[in-house]
Structure formats: C-alpha cells, structure tokens
Amino acid sequence: MRHPEFSCGVSPLRQFVMLTALLAPTIASAQEPREPVRLWSATAPGSKGTKAEDTPAIWVYRAKENRRPTTVVICPGGGYGIHAVDHEGHQIAKWFNRQGVTAVVLRYRLGPKYRHPCMLNDAQRAIRFVRSKASEWGISKERVGIMGFSAGGHLASTAATHLEPVNPDSDDPVDKESSRPDFTVLGYPVISLTADFAHRGSGNRLLGKEASKALWKNLSNETQVTKDTPPTFLFHTYEDTAVPPENSIAFFQACKRAGVPAELHVYQQGPHGVGWANGHPAVGTWQNRLHDWLKSNGFLVDAKRTAVTGTVTENGKPIRWGTIAFVPDDPNAPTAWAPIRGNGQFKVPAHRGVCFGKNRVEVYDLGAVSPTPTIEDAKQIDAGQLTAIVDENTAKLEFKIESSNP
Questions:
Q1: Can you give the C-alpha Rg of the chain in angstroms?
Q2: Which of 89, 91, 94, 173 is the most buried (most CB within 10 A)?
Q3: How far is 53 from 302, CA to CA, in rounded Å?
Q4: Where are the alpha helices (DSSP H) in 220-306?
C-alpha cells in the first residue's frame, strides 16, 4: 500500500489506519461478503483474545458463472500492521470470480500484537481449509494457489517456501489436508528481510527487533526456494521505492536456480501499492498477463496433457522454419506450442503438452533460414480445418498439408 507523506507528526502508517477506519463502513457494505468465515471453530492457536483481530478468517467469493476448478487464497498487504483489504483483497477476489475462479480473502493476524509464526499458521490453515471444502465448493484440491501483495506477498511467499508435511493422524480433518499451494502469485512483494532492499518495517512487525539473526535470514524467502516451491508469477514496478523490485527479481532468480517455473514482469512506471493500476495502459494490464500465465500452465482446468512429437510438410516439402500450435476447444485450457525446425520436425514437451481431446492445429511458415535471408512476413498455412485428436496413446503426429499458398 502506498502511504502519502504528511507534514504532521503522525506516521504515514497511522494516518492510513485512521483513514481506513473512517471509510470502513462504506468499504464493508460495498465490497465485503456479509460475514467472514472463521478458520478455526475454537480459538486459534496462539490467540491473545476474542476480537476480530485475534480471529483468523476468510471472506469467501465462490465463482458462480463459467466456474473453473481453481481457488486462490489472497493475502492483502499492509506492512504486517494493517490489511489493505479492499484494493488488494476484495477487488482482486471479484476479478477472479469473473474468470470463473473461486477466491478467499484472508484476514491474518498482525504485528506487533502477534509475531511469526502466527501469520504463517493462518495462511497455511486457509489453504488447508479451502482443500477441505473441495467437494462442497466444487473445486479441485490440486488447483489451490496463494496470492499476496506487499507484506501479504511476503506471507504468500513464506507459505510457498516453508512447507509442512501433512498430518494424517490429526483429530482435525482440516489439518489432514496439505498446506502447500499449487501456485503462487506475488504482487510487488516483500521478499527479503535482510538484504539492502529489504522492507525493515514489515520485518519488525513480523518478528520484533529482538528476534535472532537466524530467524530474520530464515524468513528472507529468496534464501528458501527449493525444487518443491510451486510455480510462481510475479509483478513489480521499477519506480517502487518502498519495496524495491529487487525483491521480486531475487525470488525469480532463486526460482530459476531451483528449477521452479516462474514468470516476472517489472513495469517501468508506478509507485508501491498500485493494486489494479486502473487506467494505466501498461501496469494496468498485469491481470491479463496473470490470466495468460494461469491458462498456459493449466491452472484453470482439470485437463490431461501429453508430450507430442511430429513432422509437418507443405506440398510434399518439410517446413524448414515455422511454428505449430494446438488450440483446445475449451478457451480456458492451455494452448500447446512448439517451433518447427530442420526437416519439418517439432517437439512439445510434457510440462507444456497438448491437451487431451480435439485440438485445432495452427501452422505458420516463417520463411527461409540462414544463409538465405527472407523479407517475407510469417504466413499461416492455408490448411482448412486442420485438427488433431489427442489421448494417452498419442505420441507422434504427422501433418501433410496441401496448400495453395505460394
């Protein structure tokens, strides 16, 4: 959340809390579901009271139209001192609903009243709680992600890197579910608590200044990424001085080193806390890139995919330089894509494989290759209604296209 500067003696964070309190009735009536759902039926572990601030809960936004199997837990930012619950919570949840995705907004406990691991316990409990509702909500246990902004991004990245084993012997059925998210979405996140670009305020409220150096390092999440960290989408802005983009860059680099699929967008313009960045022609498109990423990774459907190899010829000659795409009937299912090289050969690997079922096949010829240059535009080959039916027995495909293209 971007905090305006004030000339009076009250801190920006306190000013924001005061403003939020004044607006709370309007925000609540316009944005929030009627009542949040408690994550623990009894008192939460480590609770110091019975007020709302002591009671971890979620606001549930269940998708009704074009419902997908996916659910995301959203952690609003606020420096671990407040919840920026509107533009980094409820507005985001409503967008997910429009994509057919169920979303829950997490009210996690805050510092300095609470310290780690209470916040992480709340996030992990939310993921487990969602999975426990899979049958009732009509969602998939294998499509539960976590998303966070700013300090909420730190919490989401902590849930993605500090994984706990399932406890099958627990008396609580919710605790028998996994707390590992299937994907992670981080918006201008706090990642490091110790680097030069760390956001010290978030760390102080999360841990307290008396916490050990080892704990501060342990919760610098760029140091905690492993092969078990889920695929991650990140976006940030170059102009963010409160939480510099080096946070996202460090996490992306850690994912790369660990072999974790990741995508990073750093936009030139925009201060910290942009939310949707409504009206900005560049930053305001980050949600479109997120939808593309969710779709291309198969998080919006329960679709089986398979590796496929093959060849493409046009009028009896192999395409030397081109591309091929397999487009499923379901618009939310991932399109598989591969280059065509050499003797018309292509290879789609399993991790971005072709969806089972009927696929429309699109082939492009990109022209000649070195040492013979081309000045022609890429052209889609006139192949009519070229399709492929793919199942578990499909391993190799051969396309012999008769075309009228010159």
A1: 24
A2: 89
A3: 37
A4: 246-258, 286-296
CATH class of the 305-401 domain in this structure: mainly beta
Give this prediction's pTM: 0.89
Domain boundaries, the chain: 12-296, 305-401
User: What stretches of 32-117 show up as alpha helix (H) in DSSP?
Assistant: 91-98
pLDDT of residue 16: 37
Closest to 36 measured CA to CA, from 57, 63, 8, 5 = 57
- Number of C-beta neighbours around residue 11 at 10 A: 12
Q: Angle 151-161/200-207 helices, nearest 10 degrees?
A: 60
d(CA 282, CA 151): 23
Low-confidence ranges of the chain (pLDDT < 50): 1-31
d(CA 67, CA 284): 25
24/26 Cα distance (integer angstroms): 5
Q: Which residue has the tokens 């609580």?
A: 172
SS3 242: coil
Q: Is the separation of the CB atoms in 338 and 348 below 8 Å?
A: yes
CATH superfamily of this structure's domain 12-296: Alpha/Beta hydrolase fold, catalytic domain (3.40.50.1820)
String of DSSP letters for 140-172? -TT-EEEEEETHHHHHHHHHHHS-----TT-SS
Question: Reduced to 3 states, what is the DSSP secondary structure of residue 122?
Answer: helix
Task: Classify 58 as helix, strand or coil.
Answer: strand
pLDDT value at residue 15: 37
Q: Which of 105, 361, 301, 77 is nearest to 191 (CA)?
A: 77
State the Cα–Cα distance between residues 321 and 6, nearest whole angstrom. 60
**Distance between CA atoms of residues 158 and 191, nearest Å:** 9
Q: If you search the block for the tokens 């990642």, which residue do you land on?
A: 191
3-state secondary structure of 245: coil
